[in-house]
Amino acid sequence: MSYLDNIRTFVRVYDLGNMSAAARDQRISPAVASARISQLEAHLGVRLFQRTTRSLAATEQGRIFYDGACGILEAVALAEAGIGDVTENPRGTLHVAAPLGVGRRLIAPNVPEFAISYPLVDVRLRLSDRALDLTAEGLDIAFFLGLPADSTLRIRKIADCRRILCASPDYVERHGHPERGSDIEQAKHNCLNLRFPGAKEFQWHLQTPDGPQRFDVRGRYESDDGDVLTDWALSGAGIAMKPVFEISEHLRSGALVEVVQENPPVPIQMACLYTHRRHQDPKARLFMEFAIARMEAALADDQLPR
C-alpha cells in the first residue's frame, strides 16, 4: 500500500468519523481501510484513533497529524493541477454533487460528452436533495438551489430559476383553483412538501404586491425527493412548488396546470459551490464551465412564458 493512499484513507476516516463510511467513500473494503490506518500508525509510531467495536475517535496525535495530512493532499492536488495546466490534458477523479432534479435533467445527460473530451477524468456524480458539506464529503463541486449554508466557499451563480405552484387538472376540478396564497391557507389545500433532515424552511415564500411573504402550508405527504413530489402532483394528490425547468414537459402537455398565479413563488437561485484554492484544479474548472454552459442553454430553452 502506498503511503499517500494511507494518508488519503486517514483523512476520510477522520472527516467521516467512521471506518466503514470512509471505506465506501474510497471504494475499498473496511478491512483494507483498517489495514491502511494500522500501517500509517506503525510508520508514525503513534496511535491516530481510539477504536472500539462501537466507536472511533481521533487521538491528540491524530488531530495534530490531520492538519499536516490535509496539507500534503492539497500540495499533491496542486502539483497535479499544474501538470494539467501545462499539458492541457487533465486527469484524476472529480467528485460532483447536485440536487436530484438538477442532476438528472441538467448535468447527468452531459457527463458522457465531457468524458469523451477528457478521457483521463473520472466523474463521480452524487445526487441528493439534502444539504451537502463539500469538505466533509470530499466534493470538488456542488451545484445547488437556494442559499448556501457555508459562506466560506466560493459561489458561481448560474441563474434565478422561476418556480410555480402546480397541480393536476383532476385535483383542481375536485378542490378548486386557488388564485392567491391566502386561498391555500383558507381552503386547507393539500400541499406536497420537500423536507429532509436539517431542512430549515417549512413555509412557502410567495410574491405579493407588498413584497415576499411567508404562507403556512399543510399537507399529508412529504418527501426528500423532488421527483416524488412531481409524481404525486401528477396523480392528483395535491399542490407542489416546482422549478419550471423540472416540470415544463408536464405543463406543455396539460398534465399539470399552474395555480396561485397572483402570488407566484419567489424565484430560487441556481449556483455552484467550490472550495477556495490558490489554483483551482483544471479538471474542476473545466467541468464547471462545461456544465454551466449547457445548463444555461437548457434553462433558456425550457422556460415557459410568464
Question: Can you describe this structure in just a few lines?
Answer:
The chain is an alpha/beta fold. 44% of the residues lie in helices and 22% in strands.
Topology of this protein?
Elements: H1 3-16, H2 19-26, H3 30-44, E1 49-51, E2 56-58, H4 60-87, E3 92-98, H5 100-107, H6 111-117, E4 121-127, E5 141-145, E6 154-161, E7 163-167, H7 169-175, H8 181-187, E8 191-194, E9 203-206, E10 213-216, E11 222-223, H9 226-234, E12 239-243, H10 244-253, E13 257-259, E14 268-274, H11 282-302
Parallel strand pairs: 3-4, 3-5, 8-11, 8-12
Antiparallel strand pairs: 1-2, 5-14, 6-14, 7-12, 7-13, 9-10
Element order: H for helix, E for strand: HHHEEHEHHEEEEHHEEEEHEHEEH
How would you characterize the largest beta sheet?
A: 5 strands, mixed
Strand runs, count: 14
Helix content estimate: 40-55%
Shape: elongated
Structural class: alpha/beta
How many helical elements? 11
Features:
11 helices, alpha/beta
Protein architecture, described:
With 306 residues, the chain is an alpha/beta fold. 44% of the residues lie in helices and 22% in strands. It has helices spanning 3-16, 19-26, 30-44, 60-87, 100-107, 111-117, 169-175, 181-187, 226-234, 244-253, 282-302; strands at residues 49-51, 56-58, 92-98, 121-127, 141-145, 154-161, 163-167, 191-194, 203-206, 213-216, 222-223, 239-243, 257-259, 268-274. It has a five-stranded mixed beta sheet. Strands 11-8-12-7-13 form a five-stranded mixed beta sheet. It has a two-stranded antiparallel sheet with strand order 1-2. It starts with a helix and ends with a helix.
